[in-house]
Specification:
The structure holds two protein chains of two kinds. By secondary structure, chain A is mainly α. In chain A, about 60% of the residues lie in helices and about 0% in strands. Chain A has a domain of about 55 residues. By secondary structure, chain B is mostly helical. Chain B has a domain of about 80 residues. Chain B is built from ten helices and four strands. Classes of the chains: A mainly alpha, B mainly alpha. Chain A: This is Radial spoke head 3. Chain A: InterPro entries: Radial_spoke_3.
């Protein structure tokens, strides 16, 4: 429940005449709120001063706004209708004006100063009438009751918290007062939604302050939002040159603006800011007495004397340094020289080593070669002896073979005399032909002779027959058989001759043939024997020779 | 604040900044060279320093210092110094050489005696003088050649001390010609045998080990 029902409830029926809280509300406000039935914001604004009458006197900003209120022409017609003309109307338009600050309110502050006086008085009157400051107490009780879970409202009379300043800081910075009243939908005491989440009751002290802070921040945010909106709104244009805006009260009743600030201009001139000058050199005050004396050239400073330590240092250091350096360099050079000498020595030794290695290698190779050579010789020797043995064995084995082979060959007729063969092939057929020819000739001659004889015989026979005919013409008939017998007798010797010649002929042929043949075979056999003997001699000689050779080789 | 003309304290004595360095170098050179007559040597040192010539300073300190009483007083280090000073020319003026000889605190009589070995008019070939000096250092020819190699070589100290074979042969011929005991044929035979061994192994450079050990073996 809102703590100020009169302010927040829009209907006049809800307005409580402040009995429980002891709240005294101005009758005019109540009446006006009831008459207007304005939305919650405006009515709450109107109500807040009503509930905090006592504070009005102390608040400067509110007063300023009050006096600025008549200039709000936009509010004035709506908020000040003719419903209550009997009451002086400036209160709630001024409040409205405080919500909607105008850029030229500020300018008019001093002007409206005097006009505020009656309202201030009135406020004081109202304060007296209310006689208490209920807001704080009610708030405290509110807090306590809310934390208890059930809402009870008790409010002591109390002064309204001083929420509005008397003077506004500027146009850009309108009053940042906390909103005393707000929308019920944003009131944290009004529980919305699930109430189970509220079972965990926070500690009484701490969350409250956090809540308050949050609320204040929310209020500030709302204010800032509103301010932005206001700034975005078009304003009255700047006055033309040589003129200025002036507030004019358009109310029916003029008010003196009381809270005018008296301003006095004062001036003050400071010196220009100068750099600090340099601190002068500190010179101590002179003490003692000046005394003068004359010093001749060379009296104070003897160069030879003074230069001696320096020279000693110079020469000593130089010699020391030089000695050191010479020693160092000598040492280094010695080291280097010995190093090079050693390197030279090492090179020589390396070369010697290489030489020796090479020699060793050559020796080894030579040894290997000789070994190989010796092995070869031994192998060859073995081979040769084996060959010789094999040869001897083979010879001994073949010694018996040779004669038999020769015998069989000779028997096979593989050994022959070319002359004999020539005679056999060329000479004998020719001889036979020749013999045949001569035989033929003799035969032909014999035949020719036979024919001649026959001719002659025939002729003589014929002649003889003729003679016989002539002689034996008478005996002709008787002589026929005789002729035939004669003829047969004649033919008889002839056939006998022929048969003899024929029988003799093969004898004649065979005789000379057999005779030379037998001679020839004798001759050839003797010749063959000689040849075979010769060959045998030759073969035996060869064998002897080969044997002798083998013996020699062995 | 300008320095007053008169001096009042030792802090006003001004030392030239180059002085300590010069002094130190000089001291080092003197320590290293160990001249018999420091004054004479210093004169030579600073004149060479001012004229920008090679300084008469030994590279290494020589511990057995020649005393000039028993021996010639000439050392290999001194010869090296002379070589450093004179080797840029092929022929050196005798007077100049004598002056340099004297700056090294060596007796002039020895110089004369050295030149009597190979008398010449006004100038002498530097390599010949060096060879003569080397022969003066040590007794035998091979020792002289060893010294010569060590002076002439560009190898670092203690190294193989190689020199070109042509130079070696030239100096060897020169020195052996001065010695009446060594015949020319013997020299040539020796050189040719060396030449073969040298040229087969290392690109015409003869080192100390090539002839010195060899000679010692013989």
């Amino acid at each position: 429940m809102p703590r100020n029902p009169a302010g927040e409830l829009p209907t006049p029926g809800n307005i409580r005449p402040g009995g429980a809280g002891g709240r005294s509300q101005g009758p005019e406000v109540r009446r006006r709120a009831g008459a207007l039935a304005k939305p919650a914001r405006r009515s709450s604004e109107a109500g807040s001063p009503g509930g905090s009458r006592g504070c009005w006197a102390t608040r400067a900003g509110a007063a300023g706004e009050l006096c600025a209120s008549p200039s709000q022409s936009s509010v004035a017609p709506t908020s000040c209708p003719g419903n209550f003309p009997s009451r002086p109307p400036p209160l709630f338009p001024s409040l409205l004006a405080s919500r909607n600050p105008c850029p030229w309110h500020h300018v008019n502050l001093s002007d409206s100063h005097d006009a505020l006086a009656p309202t201030c008085l009135e406020a004081k009157l109202h304060q007296k009438r209310s006689g208490s400051t209920p807001d704080v107490a009610s708030r405290l009780t509110d807090r306590a009751s809310w934390t208890m879970g059930t809402y009870t409202y008790t409010s002591r009379p109390r002064a309204l918290p001083c929420q509005r300043r008397r003077y506004r800081d500027g146009v850009i910075q309108p009053a940042e007062e906390p909103m005393p009243y707000g929308n019920i939908m944003y009131d944290r005491r009004v529980v919305r939604g699930n109430t189970y989440a509220l079972q965990t009751v926070p500690l009484p002290g701490q969350p409250d302050s956090i809540e308050i802070q949050r609320q204040q921040q929310a209020q500030k945010r709302a204010l800032a939002r509103k301010r932005n909106r206001e700034q975005l709104r078009p304003r009255t244009p700047e006055p033309v040159e040589g003129r200025k805006h002036v507030d004019v009260q358009t109310e029916l009743y003029l008010e003196e603006i009381a809270d005018r600030i008296i301003e006095v201009d004062m001036e003050c001139q400071t010196d220009a800011f100068l750099d600090r000058p340099t601190t002068p050199l500190f010179i101590p005050a002179k003490t003692g007495k000046d005394v003068a004396t004359q010093i001749l050239e060379g009296e104070l400073f003897d160069f030879d004397l003074e230069v001696k330590p320096m020279l000693e240092v110079l020469v000593g250091k130089t010699i020391e340094q030089a000695l050191l350096e010479v020693m160092e360099e000598e040492e280094l050079a010695n080291l280097r020289a010995s190093q090079y000498a050693y390197e030279e020595l090492r090179n020589a030794e390396l070369a010697e080593i290489q030489r020796l290695e090479e020699q060793e290698r050559r020796h080894r190779e030579e040894k290997e070669r000789r070994k190989q050579q010796q092995w070869d010789v031994i192998h060859k020797h073995n081979e040769t002896s084996q060959k010789i043995a094999a040869r001897a064995f083979a010879q001994r084995y073949l010694a018996d073979l040779l004669p038999s082979v020769f015998d069989s060959l000779r028997d096979g007729g593989y050994f022959f005399d070319p002359i004999e063969r020539d005679i056999e092939i060329g000479f004998l057929p020719w001889l036979m032909n020749e013999v045949e020819k001569t035989m033929e000739h003799s035969m032909v001659g014999r035949i020719v002779l036979d024919m001649l004889i026959r001719e002659v015989v025939d002729r003589r026979l014929t002649m003889y027959e003729r003679k016989e005919d002539k002689q034996q013409s008478v005996q002709l008939e008787a002589g026929l058989g005789g002729a035939e017998a004669a003829r047969g007798s004649l033919a008889g010797p002839e056939s006998q001759d022929q048969s003899t010649s024929q029988s003799q002929r093969p004898d004649r042929d065979s005789l000379p043939r057999t005779l030379p043949e037998g001679r020839y075979t004798e001759i050839t056999s003797s010749q063959e024997r000689e040849l075979v003997e010769e060959e045998e001699e030759a073969v035996s000689g060869e064998v002897r020779k080969s044997l002798g050779r083998e013996e020699l080789s062995q | 604040m300008p320095l007053p003309d008169t001096m009042f304290c030792a802090q006003q004595i001004h030392i030239p900044p180059e002085l300590p360095d010069i002094l130190k170098q000089f001291t080092k050179a003197a320590i290293r060279t160990q001249p018999a007559d420091v004054l004479q040597w210093s004169a030579g040192y600073f004149s060479a320093l001012s004229s920008g010539d090679p300084l008469p300073v030994k590279d290494r300190i020589e511990m057995p210092v020649a005393t000039q009483k028993t021996d010639t007083g000439l050392t290999q280090g001194l010869l090296r110094v002379l070589h450093k000073q004179c080797s840029h020319r092929q022929y050196v003026d005798l007077a100049d050489l004598e002056q340099k000889w004297g700056k090294l605190c060596l007796p002039v009589e020895k110089f004369r005696a050295l030149l009597q070995l190979d008398p010449c008019e006004h100038e002498i070939e530097w390599i010949k003088f060096l060879a003569l000096g080397c022969s003066m250092l040590g007794g035998s020819l091979s020792t002289a050649m060893k010294h010569l190699c060590e002076i002439l070589t560009t190898d670092p100290e203690g190294g193989p001390a190689r020199i070109p074979f042509e130079t070696f042969a030239y100096v060897y011929r020169y020195l052996s010609r001065l010695d009446p005991e060594i015949s020319v044929a013997e020299t040539e035979v020796y050189l040719s045998s060396l030449k073969d061994s040298v040229e087969s192994r290392k690109n015409g450079m003869i080192g100390l080990s090539d002839f010195f050990v060899l000679r010692r073996k013989m």
